[in-house]
Design brief:
20 helices; globular
Length: about 475
């Protein structure tokens, strides 16, 4: 029987151990998609206690606590931070089999040097030790990033954002991690959603342009893209729930935009036509500037109307969707490819049922200009666990080229979640090790070690084109 989470955690064969310890373990991190706060990084926030840094904003943990019968006041409510931590400690022993059990103990061990299992019996001791350590400079926002060996991280930023914290960080000579914005223009094409007109006013303020026409919003978006580019942005990011495609003339889309500005209800066809027009325009801008376009597909959001009303979005009430989207995605990519304006693109899906769909469509648009121009993105969100990551890599290996994979993303609001890169690296090394042990891959450690290091870091460094 193996010890729980020892140095060879998740490594079940000697080849995997060799690949992990000698090639993967110490590779730096290129975090190309996360939801960390640039303000907290720029201000080098110091956290008052482990609840603030560990449970704040982490809807993975919130969902587990709710499933364990914990009242909302101990999750997102007004209960004291220590009581919230104690409720998390009560939940943890019930989470065996959930990746949260692994992540929690990885984070305690990696950052706090705590080997004990979190439980009601150990909670007081862990609370005291962790909080004492949080007072040191190694546990500020910047301290945690540097300790995690992060070289680049890309936050998620609205086109109307001032990027003031990214600009300040670029001038900070004492912090040598690149913190770059990623362009997230969802509000520009979600014309049917509440708040669209209010967001247009924010875009007007940010761009200095009055937006009363389709041409004006496109000009404003292009101006913001240029501003983001000057600030170091090389990545866009889109949540497409679902992706749609329906061509229309410029005149039709102009009429749809005017109708929306007047507050009128749009038909489904009008919504599709507007979204298609904006997305194609954005894709061409990304291609022009050499950006990477990330498409996140397969989420049904804010399922609990009651909790949406109480807490708002991004609080743990999103789920996996079962959209039919292959034809729309193919037509969107083909429209850009047809004029040689398809940017480097990463395709993610929350429904693992659709991995083969994404992988085969991606293969239709590889053009030889760059290795892995179109990527099947890492196991994302609910899939960033052992089974989900393994399945994603097996599909990519079967249908594409695993060795050109840009690897893991954090997709987190927590500064402690960089241990998930270690989790991913162990799973990657073990998968390759299993192939070697079964005689399905050669026992060429130099070849495989280089492959592992490329997937862990080097492929992303080359793919995203960020100099550091």
């Amino acid at each position: 029987m193996k010890p729980f989470m020892d140095e060879n955690f998740l490594l079940t064969n000697k080849t995997a151990e060799n690949l992990y310890h000698n090639f993967a373990k110490d590779m730096p991190i290129f975090d190309f998609h996360c939801h960390l706060s640039p303000r907290e990084i720029a201000e080098n926030k110091r956290y008052q206690n482990i609840t603030e840094v560990w449970l704040g904003g982490d809807h993975y943990k919130w969902r587990a606590m709710r499933a364990n019968g914990v009242e909302e006041r101990f999750i997102t409510g007004d209960a004291p931070d220590k009581e919230k931590f104690m409720k998390w400690a009560e939940t943890m022993p019930q989470c065996i089999g959930n990746p949260l059990y692994h992540w929690t103990h990885q984070e305690l061990k990696t950052y706090f040097g705590i080997d004990k299992l979190l439980s009601p019996e150990t909670a007081e001791e862990i609370w005291e030790k962790a909080n004492a350590l949080l007072q040191s400079d190694a546990f500020t926002a910047q301290g945690l990033i540097k300790r995690s060996n992060v070289k680049v991280l890309c936050t998620t930023d609205d086109p109307a954002d001032s990027l003031e914290y990214h600009i300040a960080l670029a001038k900070n000579e004492d912090f040598n991690v690149k913190v770059l914005p990623a362009f997230r223009p969802d509000k520009s094409f979600n014309i049917e959603k509440a708040g669209f007109i209010e967001w247009i006013k924010k875009l007007e303020h940010a761009s200095g342009k009055e937006i009363g026409s389709l041409a004006a919003i496109l000009e404003a978006l292009q101006q913001r893209i240029e501003f983001f580019h000057a600030t170091g942005c090389r990545i866009s990011d889109h949540a497409l729930d679902p992706i749609v495609f329906e061509k229309a003339t410029v005149q039709e889309v102009e009429a749809i935009f005017q109708k929306a500005l007047q507050g009128s209800i749009l038909t489904d066809s009008e919504i599709r036509k507007y979204k298609t027009h904006i997305l194609v325009f954005l894709g061409k801008q990304y291609a022009r500037l050499g950006w990477v376009m990330q498409l996140h597909i397969g989420t049904i959001r804010n399922n609990s109307t009651r909790m949406m009303r109480i807490l708002g979005p991004d609080t743990g009430f999103d789920a996996t969707a079962d959209y039919i989207f292959a034809e729309a995605l193919s037509k969107f990519l083909d429209t850009l490819d047809n004029t040689d304006e398809l940017p480097k693109t990463i395709l993610y899906c929350l429904n693992p049922r659709d991995y083969e769909v994404l992988a085969t469509i991606a293969g239709c648009f590889q053009d030889g200009s760059i290795p892995g121009k179109l990527q099947l993105g890492s196991g994302w969100w609910y899939n960033d666990q052992k089974d989900g990551m393994t399945r994603q890599m097996i599909v990519l290996a079967n249908i594409g080229i695993l060795s050109r994979f840009v690897g893991m993303l954090t997709d987190s609001r927590s500064f402690l979640s960089y241990t998930r890169h270690d989790y991913f690296r162990r799973i990657l090394c073990n998968l390759i090790g299993e192939w070697v042990e079964a005689g399905e891959a050669p026992h060429d450690i130099k070849l495989l070690g280089t492959m592992v290091q490329n997937i862990c870091f080097t492929n992303a460094k080359n793919y995203f084109g960020v100099n550091f």
